[in-house]
Amino acid sequence: MTSGSPRAYLVRITTRLALNRLRTMRRRKEAYVGPWLPEPLLTAPDVAEDAVLAESVSMALMIVLERLSPTERAVFVLREAFDVGYDEIAAAVGKSPAAVRQIAHRARRHVDACRPREVVSPGQMRAALESFRRAFETGDRQGLLDVLAPEVVFVSDAGGVKRGALRPVAGAERVARFIVGGLGKAGGALTGDPAVVNGSPGLFVRVGGELDGVLAFSVVDGRIAGLCYVRNPEKLTRVGVRDPVTLR
């Protein structure tokens, strides 16, 4: 594929637009109130059944990608997701092919270091989610402790628009107390509707029947090790009003 081909031109233009967008978002994040989480992606149930597909859109991977620099992220996605050649990527990001190889290696090493070391089956995920949902809806603190891993971390993204923890909450006791004492007293009946979020089972959290946020989970050894709660209304505008992504 030559540098003057239509594909190379589209890759170059699209990449530069994406880089501009990523740099703008990075500046916004510097002034953001509280933790920043990616916008949740509603996916079809079949995505959760495919471990490779599920991992490729997982909230955990999206968070890792957010930590890369804009150039690292662009190089990683072009190379790993679309198998674009180094020369073509170099033209798109304005770097030499040698520099792009180094950037790709650095980004891949960072992503691999953050990937989970065990594959959790969809059945394990659903079982942990159902146990959590029952305890969550009833305010059963002991039920939450039974399903939360001791080192669980809860991260909420409210963006200063809604009430939320300004820092991650760590440890089963603290997370259970935060859920029961905070979310459980949000001003209405608390329910969790099962959904597939970023390729894994998750919950649409409703307070008094109105969507309050989206919970995404990570599970290790059958217990919930991570909770990501996107509550900022600006990040929920497309959830539930679009057809789920199938990636098929």
Automatic annotation (TrEMBL):
> Known InterPro entries for this protein?
ECF_Sigma-70_Domain (IPR052704), NTF2-like_dom_sf (IPR032710), RNA_pol_sigma-70_dom (IPR014284), RNA_pol_sigma70_r4_t2 (IPR013249), RNA_pol_sigma_r3/r4-like (IPR013324), WH-like_DNA-bd_sf (IPR036388)
Return the protein name.
RNA polymerase subunit sigma-24
Biological processes annotated in GO: DNA-templated transcription initiation
Identify the stretch annotated as signal peptide in this record: none
Q: Which Pfam families match?
A: Sigma70_r4_2
Keywords assigned by UniProt? Sigma factor, Transcription, Transcription regulation
Keyword Transcription regulation listed: yes
Family of this protein: Belongs to the sigma-70 factor family. ECF subfamily.
Q: Which GO terms describe its molecular function?
A: DNA binding; sigma factor activity
Q: Where is the RNA polymerase sigma factor 70 region 4 type domain?
A: 62-110
Species source reads Nonomuraea aridisoli
